[in-house]
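The authors assume throughout that readers already know how a fold can be written as discrete tokens. A single example would do more here than another paragraph of explanation. An entry of this sort, consisting of the sequence and the corresponding backbone structure tokens, reads as follows:
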Amino acid sequence: MMGTPSLQQNPDRTPGDRSASSGLDRTRGTLLPRVMRSTRPWAMMSLLVLSDLCSVGLAWGIGMALRFTMLGKFDYPQYLRLWPALFLWVLAFGIEGLYRGAGLNARIFLTPVEELRRTTVGTTWAFMTAVAGMYIMLGFLFISRLVIGVAWIIALILVPCGRALLRNICARRSWWGSSVAIFGSGKTARRVVDILLHQPELGLKPVGILTDTPCGETQIEGVPILGGLERAWQFGRTRGIPYCIVALDEGSNKRMFDIHQEYGDCFPHMMVIPDLAGLASLWIVARDVGGILGLEIRHNLLIASNRWVKRSLDLVVAIPLIILLSPLLLALMVWIRLVSPGNPVYGQEREGLEGRRIRIWKLRTMYIDADKRLEKLLERDPEARNEWQRYFKLKNDPRILPFLGTLLRKFSLDELPQLWNVIAGEMSLVGPRPFPDYHLQAFDEKFRTLRHRVLPGVTGLWQVSARSEGDIEVQQRLDTYYIRNWSMWLDLYLMARTFSVVVRGRGAY
């Protein structure tokens, strides 16, 4: 993946570099596999700019088309003559740092949540500037508020979607991203390598590992171990690798300060991964505390103003959504009643904020005697029992109504009545799922206490990342990440991901 197979098969060749056909290279009297940067930063930046221009141009086109459809003819050629102003958005995105990592000097690539925040801010500023310029040059009567309003809203959606689509297409290409060296071979380094290999959209491609302690292995997940840290100069300066990630475990023989002193000038950019598992990783601010490096970590959901923002977002989305979906809900309830006698909606007690008991509502997807059916299956089928103990779900669940129940679960339509819980303030649109008591008992007490700090959600990070495929450990890790790193932008990102996942019906059963 991402060029590593070619390293595995022939360590003398560089992934994506056809010219690297010679064998080992001698530098300072030692042998070093020929590993060179094969990325094309200007191609990456050009594609990002093209994607942004297409998204913004399409948004303006949709705005003008809607204006024509609703109100008839207008002076649209005036708008078409302003096409050079599209580069105003490129300038705004550049100021927001949305093209970093695509220039000659690689920078840290943005997370999807941070990219969403920056595209929203950049798009809004560009529209405000464009409107002000149009008003000054052409006068107020020329400006169509309908065109501008629609174009702004559509651009807020299309720009991040266009970038996500571009990454999805290009992320695994050898020329996309930046090559990176990894310092370390312990648990932390292995986790970093695993993340970078399985999330190519991050844009950092590990091409070699340097260790601070002897290691009997020759590679980690296909990434070659090239020797000790003393080869950093050869690997960084001579081979032009722009990035290194220091991921040493707590028991390392080297201190971070010593590594920076000795090898800091070998790479243009050095990223340090501290062994701080479980702490927040988004929105952390580095502080200078009298010459000492400090990390300021905020618990956003303990700030009263943030709770109001989250509550406002819930109401703004949930109220229109339940109004629009009311006919669908009614039709599904009638269908359930025809397929299986009994109430088509059922409520179940779960734990809510601060451990309070709440009743959440769902469309019924199971037989009335579902518990008895499950008990019989688990008694006679050891494999099903093991699957239940690990996931608290079954791929072949005898409780589910044929076709209808599977359909509702596949597209998460059974969760729609929980919009009433959101409006009532018992749940949020995004948050940890309110698990049944038997499910919660599988978690440790510390994690349950952490969950009590926030409202449970209709959707969440676990649902859009792992769906039904995530076991207890994955559920705990992802829910912990969400609670520690909450922001409005994370909620908006997860809502968008939820729509994509639900439409595709991926991973649900």
